[in-house]
Specification:
This protein is α/β, with parallel strands linked by helices. It is built from 9 helices and 7 strands. Helix 1 crosses helix 9 and helix 2 crosses helix 5. The longest helix is centred in the last third of the chain and has 31 residues. The relative contact order is 0.20.
């Protein structure tokens, strides 16, 4: 099974790409969505212990937690040491389930793919990218978003040029969603063919 790491900065169209893949039967693990689950379940007592007063009614209060770690890299590191191992284990479980189900391709949707070293856990990396003015418009159109919040989020992420430089493939979402979807379909089909070719070459070696 080919494991694809899908990434992109905020507002780049990564979630739209992931949704399109799901609609076409490609299994996708959403790391951000899983963190939201953790903040309402398994991670709550761990975070309350490390960040007293940041949970309410059995769930993490994201605003209080963000206030606690804002501008304090050492506190952010503590949070990451709690959350990241849980996310990694969930990704492993997801991939094992998909391989057992016979999937030829599975996708890990990870916003901070390169920032956290998660590229080491995938076979191929795909970065979704758009020009800065389009990214800004998309993000600032979101309810409750401000320029300050946007810049704070961007500071945690690689520059788009760096992400594009590190990715195996770059998906352009700066034109239309339809164009991006067409490009994505072609890329996935190409990756499936490459995977098939690799497996054909390995099969005699595995049987010997």
């Amino acid at each position: 099974m080919l494991v694809v790491g899908l990434t992109g900065g905020i507002g780049m169209g990564k979630s739209s790409a992931a949704a399109h893949l799901r609609e076409h039967g490609v299994p996708v693990f959403d790391a951000d969505a899983y963190v939201h689950q953790l903040y309402e379940g398994e991670a709550v007592p761990l975070i309350e212990r490390a960040f007293p007063g940041t949970t309410r009614d059995g769930r993490v209060d994201r605003a209080l937690l963000a206030k606690d770690v804002a501008g304090r890299p050492e506190r952010l590191k503590v949070l990451e040491e709690i959350v990241h191992p849980l996310v990694v284990q969930a990704e492993i479980d997801f991939l094992c389930d998909q391989e057992a189900a016979g999937a030829s391709v599975a996708v890990l949707e990870i916003p901070l793919l390169f920032e956290t070293g998660a590229e080491a856990r995938v076979d191929v990396t795909v970065a979704v990218s758009a020009p800065h003015h389009i990214q800004s418009r998309r993000v600032l159109d979101r309810p409750g978003m401000t320029g300050h919040k946007f810049e704070a989020l961007r500071e945690r992420q690689l520059e788009d040029a760096d992400r594009r430089g590190r990715a195996d493939y770059v998906l352009d979402s700066g034109t239309t969603l339809e164009n991006m979807r067409t490009e994505l379909d072609g890329l996935i089909e190409s990756l499936k063919l490459q995977q098939g070719s690799v497996m054909e070459r390995l099969r005699p070696l595995r049987s010997s």
